[in-house]
């Protein structure tokens, strides 16, 4: 398992945090996602054999938020 921190922009409330968490945890290979509204970040634990940082970023962006590696 690997960990990555993503900078997330576009979150304005707790509902956004839940949405981003749901998006990330819905990606195959993601074990856990911890999203922080205060820090505008997501720390994601994932299986490198099943997904990539680029796929995680794409999933978040497809959900309507901006994301980049921290």
TrEMBL record:
<protein>
    <submittedName>
        <fullName>Mercuric transport family protein</fullName>
    </submittedName>
</protein>
<dbReference type="InterPro" id="IPR036163">
    <property type="entry name" value="HMA_dom_sf"/>
</dbReference>
<keyword id="KW-0479">Metal-binding</keyword>
<dbReference type="GO" id="GO:0046872">
    <property type="term" value="F:metal ion binding"/>
</dbReference>
<dbReference type="InterPro" id="IPR017969">
    <property type="entry name" value="Heavy-metal-associated_CS"/>
</dbReference>
<feature type="domain" description="HMA">
    <location>
        <begin position="2"/>
        <end position="68"/>
    </location>
</feature>
<dbReference type="Pfam" id="PF00403">
    <property type="entry name" value="HMA"/>
</dbReference>
<dbReference type="InterPro" id="IPR006121">
    <property type="entry name" value="HMA_dom"/>
</dbReference>
<dbReference type="InterPro" id="IPR001802">
    <property type="entry name" value="MerP/CopZ"/>
</dbReference>
């Amino acid at each position: 398992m690997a960990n990555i921190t993503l900078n997330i922009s576009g979150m304005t409330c707790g509902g956004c945090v839940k949405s981003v968490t749901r998006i990330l945890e819905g990606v195959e290979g993601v074990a856990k996602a911890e999203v922080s509204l205060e820090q505008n970040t997501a720390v994601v634990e994932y299986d490198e054999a099943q997904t990539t940082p680029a796929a995680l970023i794409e999933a978040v962006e497809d959900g309507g938020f901006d994301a980049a590696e921290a």
